[in-house]
Amino acid sequence: MHRFIMTTMTLCVLILASALAWAAVEAPADLKLGPPEGMKASKTLVDFSHDKHGEAKVECATCHHTWNGTSEVKSCSYAGCHDQPGKKGETAFYVAFHAKKSEASCLGCHKILKKSGNKVVPVSCKACHPK
């Protein structure tokens, strides 16, 4: 019985520690989203606010879908993620932001929110890529 209690308490401490580590991740300030090095942007860069997405209760792992919750969070254009040119394929940079039916992409998530009645989220090209 003593071993069971100690094992249970150890598991609780580990779960609490990992929950605190998850919560301790601090998102960077506002930034500009653009293509990976060596790829030319066809439109203006996008202003992105981690604060606004945090206020909307968007979890980090929604966008950073390969993040394990403890390692360093990498950008979408990181090598091996969405670092390929073009508009097709899972690793295409364009797809990370414009896949219309994926809640892991900006446009996909915004379209879902728009359908549910949210009038504030941008869904047009000009709303995200001002001239």
Uncertain runs with pLDDT below 50, 5 residues or more?
none
Shape field:
globular
CATH class: Alpha Beta
Q: What proportion of the residues is helical, as a percent range?
A: 25-40%
How many strands? 2
Radius of gyration: 19 Å
Q: Which percent range describes the beta-strand content?
A: under 5%
Query: What's the CATH topology name?
Result: Cytochrome C3
Task: Indicate the structural class.
Answer: mainly alpha
What this model shows, in words?
- The protein is mostly helical.
- The protein has a single domain, classed as Cytochrome C3 (Alpha-Beta Complex).
- Helix content is 40%, strand content 5%.
- The chain has a two-stranded antiparallel sheet.
- The chain is globular.
Q: Descriptors for this entry?
A:
mainly alpha; globular; two-stranded antiparallel ribbon; single chain; 2 strands; Cytochrome C3; 131 residues
Question: What is the topological layout?
Answer:
Layout: H1 2-23, E1 31-33, E2 46-48, H2 50-55, H3 60-63, H4 93-98, H5 106-115, H6 125-128
Antiparallel strand pairs: 1-2
